[in-house]
Design a protein that fits this description.
Layout lengths: L2 E6 L6 H12 L3 E7 L10 H11 L6 E6 L3 H7 L4 E6 L2 H17 L4 E6 L9 H9 L10 H14 L2
The chain binds 4'-phosphopantetheine.
The site of 4'-phosphopantetheine has 9 residues, from strand 1 and helix 4.
Length: about 160
Amino acid sequence: MKISIYPGSFDPITNGHIDIIERASKISDKLIVSVLNNNEKKSLFTVDERVEMIKESTKNFQNVEVEYFDGLLVDYAKRKNANIIIRGLRAVTDFEYELQLAQTNRELYNEVETLFLLTSIQYSYLSSSIVKQVAEENGDISKFVPDFVANKLKEKYKINTL
Ligand code: PNS
């Protein structure tokens, strides 16, 4: 059974992530989308909020599970019996960081393979940070994230600016 993990911050999930999840789910028996629970990294959404948004976005994919993880990704992968780590590559600027992550992970656990999926061209510019910037300035994010994520972003910024 091919169990893959798609790890990330997902703060929040975007249409680019959903595209990767859909494609990765087709080449995995089970795909676990995992949100890093990292207190050091300042995030807009709590881990629970991020997990909920991913669950809602992926509810139609039968073999996708969503949860969060703490600590090293490779230790989590071992616990889950997963040998494949999925990462999306948008542009060559992503490559250096991704290379570091993938090489380190394989050094730590040589049975794990990182599988890079090229982000579909229409999402190649998209990132959670850019979506947050546009949302904060009340720009139109309807093409970037599902409607319920757009609503959550609007709520968040309204609450934060009170
Ligand atoms: O969406 P992101 O922020 O680019 O995802 C980065 C993530 C979560 C994949 C990476 O930070 C990670 O795996 N963190 C867990 C800690 C770890 O295992 N670090 C060692 C690998 S360098």
